Amino acid sequence: MAILEIVKYGDPILRKKSEPIKEITDDVVKLANDMLETMYAAPGVGLAGPQVGLSLQICVIDIVPDGKKKPIVLINPKIISGQDKYEGEEGCLSFPKIFEKIKRWQKIEAEYIDLDGNLNRVEVDGFLAKAFQHEIDHLDGKVFIDYLPSWKRKLVEKEIKRRKKGKNW
Ligand code: NI
After folding, report:
1. How far is the CA of 152 from the centre of ligand 1 (A)?
2. pLDDT (tens digit, 9 = 90+) per residue, 82-115?
3. How far, in Å, from the CA of 131 to the mean position of ligand 1?
4. Residues annotated as part of the active site
5. Which of 26, 70, 82, 90 is most buried, taking the most CB atoms under 10 A from its CB?
6. In sequence order, what are the residues at sequence separation of 6 or more whose Cβ sits closer than 8 angstroms to the Cβ of residue 8?
7. What is the distance in A from the centroid of ligand 1 to the CA of 47?
């Protein structure tokens, strides 16, 4: 396994739509394991293909429920439906030290292929639902600050510019 470099906001790959994965090859399995290792080391609860410089529809999530590791690998995932919006704090490994309150679905239904090639349809809620929505957004070239009102997003972008100037990004 290997730790991959995490791409920061400003890199155009974070704005690209990712390509579906056609086949679960050994390379895909290795990539998933490397992404998990990278996510745990960061540390974070989710990581998507574009964040490691690959425009592929894969993401890894582990919210470590009850303090136990429970990794989930999503291939070609889709949100089918959402219910009840709520606001909660969110961050992203591509936006170090930036946290903002974002509205998300409380409960979602999602579909994805797992590493065994099986199609899964799941219902998740709360923190896990938030992670699913955040990571799947990355595959569409979307990032969490897109949900902020424009005045707030401008403040965040100003802060990022300031940090880039100081080589602190
Ligand atoms: Ni993110």
Report:
1. 18
2. 999 999 999 999 999 999 999 999 999 999 999 9
3. 9
4. 135
5. 90
6. 94, 95, 96, 169
7. 6
